[in-house]
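Data availability (excerpt). The following record was deposited with the supplementary files.
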Amino acid sequence: MNLSSHLIQRLLHLPPPATRHLTVENDLRVPMRDGTVLLADRWTPASGSANLPTALVRIPYGRTGMIAAQVARPLAERGFQVLIQSTRGTFGSGGVFDPLRREREDGLDTLEWLVEQSWCGEAIVLYGGSYLGFAQWSMAGQLPPQVKALIPSVSESAFTLEFLRKESFSLEATFGWGLQVAGQERRGAMLHQALRIRKERRAWYTLPLNEADIAAVGRRSDYFRNTLDHDAESPFWSALDHSSRVADLTVPVSTVGGWYDIFLPGQLRDYQALQGAGRDARLTVGPWAHISMGVGATATAEALDFGLAHARGEKPSSRAPVRLFVMGEETWRDFPSWPPPGYNSQRLHLHPAGALSADPPPESAPDTYHYDPADPTPAVGGVRMAVGVKSGRVDNTALEARPDVLTYTTTALDQDTEVVGEVSADIWFRSSLPYADVFVRLCDVDENGRSTNVCDGLVGLSDADATTCATVQLWPTAYRFKRGHRIRVQVSSGAFPRYNRNLGTGEPRATATTLRAADQQVLHTPTHPSAIVLPLRRVT
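Predicted structure:
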């Protein structure tokens, strides 16, 4: 156990603990309102655990192993007792696992049980990332007074819905996670997951898509099938959307995210709701993707500062409400709000011959490329969540050499230029088919010509055979383009398998089988001024 303690301390960059000697009380039975019993483990210091605040963690991935130990052990060694509970239908807990649907009711029932336990103490902190963060958001608006703080990381209150937009279905995240949870309790699940990576990647190309789970693992994933059959606007998912409750959350919140995290846009909307309601909240965003030790280390630090202080009735360490890692400058900076003040919206227009400029474009012929869903434009780095896949900032040289990717680049910058906030693009577009996607990526080109991705986004069109202005919402960012570097915009029609490939037919994504290639046009004229819209500040 001490070896595990030392390893986690090193991985999470933590100071030495108050104790390394813990006691784990297994399989506590927690009754739900419908008679179902969920199981939980209680981690406490071997001595001196009386009246310690309780960190509640609700998790669908099991209460043992490295994931649980990384969550429970560092907190239990440094001032908390930790109750880590398996969510409904997972790892010994009763009922059926229907991902995300019962977290509000079950979470509130767990809190009701917890405050009645003699060992609970007078303060509770909710903690955890991703699904564990959603489990916290889901209880907003009905928390007992014993709950003193929430610390959700890489998560949001409308979990999954960002993936399921009709115009930008996130194949990689929904498919990979659906297969993971469908088989996670099989013997040797981690080994099976590692062995199936190649088969899973082949399965991305399966048509119809509702047979991809069978192709990958030989059995259904109910969650994945549901994501195919119901888009984000369907009432089927209404139980997963707790965003309307966020502004009513009076408990202090510290939320941790990453610039390349799959949940970042929703997480920032949640923070803005708290900010707009004048709540006690702070935001930290680093240069991370969803699966990153940096997220875990920062969230743990927030639990031991922000969470523990509020649990004890004390003030956490003083800092600005918003702390952002400004990429390019490679440093942390503090800001008063999100989006930060002082960044003015500026349009950089696409020009002929691959130019990008603040000047309006001249009359010019459109740029063209051929998109073939049989050879889809690949996702390279960026916002990814798949085992063995490189995420975040990567070299885009090979991607930009493809004939189905257009690039537009400024001249060398004469001074440092920061982009911090929400990024969008208006791309005037026309296709030979009604159904097409427009993918836009912002890149930084250094003095040696190496292009590195900053942020991106995709939108699908259903009237693309007419000249259309495609408004693309890119991921938010904080980035400094250095003097001598150039700003680049990529335009293409896909980022597969992050997004499902557009087959060009308009058939339902679950059952479509026909592939149709398309000829695409990007317009840049005075009447069709394609542009990227940047929150920009020049640094003197």
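Summary of structural features: The mean pLDDT is 95.
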